[in-house]
Amino acid sequence: MAEPASTSASTDPTGSDSAVPNVPSGAAVPSLFLIAWLVLAVPMFLRMPETNDAEMFDLQAWLIADGGVMYRDVLEPNLPGVVWIHLLVRVIGGSSSEALRVYDLLSFSIVMSFGWGLLKMSGASRRAAMWSVFGCSVFYLSTSEWCHCQRDMWMLAPAMAGTWLRLKQRERTESGASGGRLILWGMLEGLLWGVGIWIKPYVLLVTVGVWLCTLSRKAGLKRTAADSAGLLAGGLIAGGAGFGWMISTGAWSHWLDTMQNWNPRYLQAGRENWTYPRFKVMVIRFLPWFLLHLAAVPIALKQLQQRVSGRNAGPDDSSEKPIAIGSAVLASVYLVWMIHSFLLQHLFDYVHAPGIVLAILVCADAVARGRSRTGLQLVVMLFGVVVVAASPILKLKTVTTWRECVSGDTTPHLQDRLTHFGNPRRTDLAEIVAFLKQQQVSGHDVLIFNSDGVSLYRRMNLKPPSRYAYFFETLIFFPDKRNKVILEAMRNRPRFIVLDLVSCLEMSGDEAHAVGPAGKHAAPPGYKPRPSFPWKYPVAFRAGSWLVLEAAEATRAEETE
Q1: Kind of pairing, strands 446-448 and 496-500?
Q2: H or E stretch covering 548
Q3: CA geometry: angle at 217 spanning 213 and 222, to 5°?
Q4: From CA 99, how far away is CA 111, in angstroms rounded?
Q5: Do residues 93 and 273 make contact, with C-beta atoms less than 8 angstroms apart?
Q6: C-alpha neighbours within 13 Å on the C-beta side of residue 399
Q7: What pTM did the predictor assign?
């Protein structure tokens, strides 16, 4: 519905110039685009394969449900919040990959709901806010499976909810709400931030940034103290509940050992692998979306600069206009997120996906408030054309699976068509599973060497022969512990070792899939056994680039060469 022609600049919530023609403010058009996109993309999203990280957290949840102890049974460098989510999802939704992806969609919907709310609080129209939700949905549902069902997007949900509650709490403190009410709402907000911190501790940086950005002189010392007390109490309750769980389940001492003896080297390995070639490849995978940072960073810096300098203060200099504080807080969340994702975390795609979502919201906020609206809209439209042209969802290989995704079953063949990566192939893993089942494996009979195959443990009801479920990666990240890691695994005498030639030997796809005179189930012609672990064992079976090695009854001395 169009705004009345008489609407003036003084009543325009976007703050646009009165000389700019009025445009429709209703959200009907972007809502229709969003619905059409969800109908197309969601069925394919739900059928996509899970990545090794999601499978690893699933494995831990499964072991805990079976009486295991976290951090003791699987080496885990992270806080337990994500495993709690997996436990909850599996209790409610079952063991399917679709159940976990439904939760992922729910978490993303929460992000979008509060993103919408933050844009509205900064003065954006319903139309602009809905276009931003549409843009974020196009981005996230077009990303690879490596970005889905991951902690970084999941922790964005409580962070966005906490940010929205912080702005509402600021309104309460400035309007003279009672101390008791402020404490209760502060506790709720603190609980949300605490949940986010248990998923990933970097949320604490966002919490501090939002709190500093929303401090208000008008609130007064007494109400600010009540608000802060409630916020701190909520965070302590969330923290105490989490530590209580770890103590009661026996995970506490193993968590301390992980933090002291394993995580320092794990963090160092992350810094060592933050290289330009890997960064360049990641940026290419995120194009054209990654380019939004070039606009979002200066926009966010300007918002914070204006917030600090007080240029957006109201006439009485006692409080800021809602449009200024809402935009400044969104800018704060975005910039803090950029800092920890670029400077403190490993260089993984999923770490940077939430930052792009926030960049979309920051840019949408600027467009909604921009004076040169016609020019900005043209830029947005051109960017949209590029996005559509680049979307993996609309490629022939993917879009032709839509009917099967809606009415068929999730099969390895379907997942191989939906994946964004050529390795691992789920059809190859299915052949590996069939072979191992023929061998009647059970218990600790199988050692999955590299992380891409970690799902096989749960699929075959097997237990890892050691706590180093990411076995190959542990050897790479912790070379000084190589002998210890191998010895612990071989102490349980696994009969078979499963590994991928592309990941472990860095063979090319063509080399790893080549078929020699011995047939497709024998090692490829380019494969040469080595005297070191695990390459000294004979090949029992092969599917694509995956080998099953038959482990001999070696002595302890042999295994610690």
Answers
A1: parallel
A2: strand 546-550
A3: 105
A4: 19
A5: no
A6: 10
A7: 0.89
